[in-house]
Amino acid sequence: MGWNSWDCFGFDVNEAEVRATADFIDKHIKDLGYEYIVLDMNWYAPDWPAIKNSQSESYNMDSYGRLLPDTVKFPSSVNGQGFKPLADYIHSKGLKLGIHLLGGIPKKAVEKNCLIKGTSEHASSIIQSEIGGYRYETFDAIDLSKPGGQEYYNSLFELYASWGIDFIKADYIPFASELIGISRASRTCGRSMIISCVPYLLPEKTLKENVHMSRTGLDLWDKWEWLKRSFFMAAIVVKEAESGYWPDLDMLPVGMITVKSPREGEKPHISNFTKNELYTIFSLWYITRMPLFIGGYLPQTDQFTLELIKNREALEVNRNSSGNHQLFDFSTDHLVWTADIPGSQDKYLAFFNISDNEVPQEISVNWEQLGLSGPDYKVRDLWGNKDMENFGSGFKYKINKHGAGLYRISK
Predict the structure, then answer these.
(1) How many CB atoms lie within 10 A of CB 226?
(2) What is the mean pLDDT of residues 316-322?
(3) What is the CATH number of the domain that holds 374?
(4) Which of 298, 319, 340 is the last residue in one of the domains?
(5) Which of 85, 135, 294, 376 is the most buried (most CB within 10 A)?
(6) 167-173 and 194-199 as β-strands: parallel, antiparallel, unpaired?
(7) Last residue of a domain, one of 285, 319, 353
């Protein structure tokens, strides 16, 4: 649980914004379990508008080809201090710091033929020369079978450990060998770190063996059709979750987003999701036990979204449930999810109306479909924090267009 800078600041989050976010989390939502503050890509370069046509040349880098924080964005990193002063500030509040990592080695390091720390090898000798750059053309893929390949990743994580980094978002990783190298380096650096991966066509077995979180599907933004497709992905990937490994449907694009937009033409705005759609996104992430990373700039969060975030009863579905699954297929636009509650005979239940019909739709379930026996169960509305009436053989309720309901069923 935590916050990621991408949805609100894109390439250009700075130290003042990170510290303000840490202060907000500490004051308002740390007690709910939110603890990770993750800086997304380009923390090692000036603001994107100034460098988009000359990225690689602008990267701040040490003599070993390792990226360093941009000292204008992150002034406490001057004099080779890296992220340690910022990490110390975040740790002083009982929170944790994460950073973004692209697979490979910067082309700038290859062009300069930097020495690989702890070896006699140089950057030009460790790359997959037959592949070169990939997607992010300012990086070269690393050949982990070559001397110095693993050592480069080891040197990165040695540096990150010295800064006090707690979380790595390893982005666009298309080679299993590189993911394994990243994982190996994280396990031997002397500091415990969560590894979150955005893979490209990597086997599930490789992901489970090497990371704690794995992104599924495309980036999510504040458009209903994009949220709607998350239901189909969730029904598949929820089955892969196990202790120590979590599929990840992406950050939650809620609150104030695109303050500095990675998307052309976007302006700062409160998420375009309607109130009903906000109930839906939180309910889906809760009942599927997805990692919870807020994407909006927290100090400017609107009151309605903040109230949803701070609803402890609803959040508990995400924090303490098991056996989470969708009950029926996608033959209708009325979706039902349920989950067990460890140590209890109670059940969690979620109703979703993903239709475009303006008229609220009645969704129903009988107790047997939830694995409950006998009649007469109580229903508690978790978003409303209130008890509803007792229901005899099952439960039905009208759900608004693009809306959701989240409930606890008990005797």
Answers:
(1) 15
(2) 98
(3) 2.60.40.1180
(4) 319
(5) 294
(6) parallel
(7) 319
